[in-house]
Fold:
Amino acid sequence: MATTIPAESAPEKSSWFNRCWRVVATGFCFSLFGLGGLLLSGVWFNLMRLVVRDPERRSRLTQNSIRHSFRFFLATTRFFGVLDYHFDNVERFSEDRGCLVIANHPSLLDYVLLASQMPRCDCIVKEALLSNVFVSGVIKAAGYLANAQSDILLEQCRQRLASGGTILIFPEGTRTTPGKALTLQRGAANIALRGQCDIRVVHIHCQPPMLTKQGKWYKIPAIKPQFHITVQDKIDARAFIHANDVSPALAARRLTQHLTDALQSEPINNEK
Structure:
């Protein structure tokens, strides 16, 4: 059964005062986000290293701390009227072990939205973020994977999936340009095929666009942005491997095209 976002009459533009308020509130929320990252990295995670000796338990506590911190941040943005958000079928994340989660990437907040709901999130991040003082400590403490050499990354992902981890990746490699067709890189397909795993598809809709690749944080939309996140069906990557394939690249090409269609189209939910 297809799930589509209902058509609504175009909301009226916000008043001048409301837009000014949202600019100030957005700046406050991002300052809070940066401060939270510094506190987690500089205080909380270091304290856990001293107190919690078991690496597995420390990893769980780290993931829980990140998830609850993101939930608090998102609740703050909603409270101050910066944005609103709605999740469909988010309970499906609890079924995902040894699974690759992919999503389209319309906004800077996509990772925060998804990681706030996923019980475990092993994210692939740009290597440059390891030099960012606000998030590098969080990345290292959580054990996120840096997108460096492809062969090393593929093997790290295979091992993480084999151990029951759930890896989140945005296969476009960058944020979507509004109004343009999606162009997926083959990295997600290669990871799924190497790990012989399922792929969970997530569709993110943001209207009006906010925090896009070209947009600045202070360029506030005329109306409050609404995020609609739909957790869709899983795809079995093994189904795209054919016995007569002369090269693994053929399966990766087929799977990448299928994923492009799944993310470009309206969300579809067929799971029982």
Remarks:
- Confidence is low (pLDDT under 50) at residues 1-8.
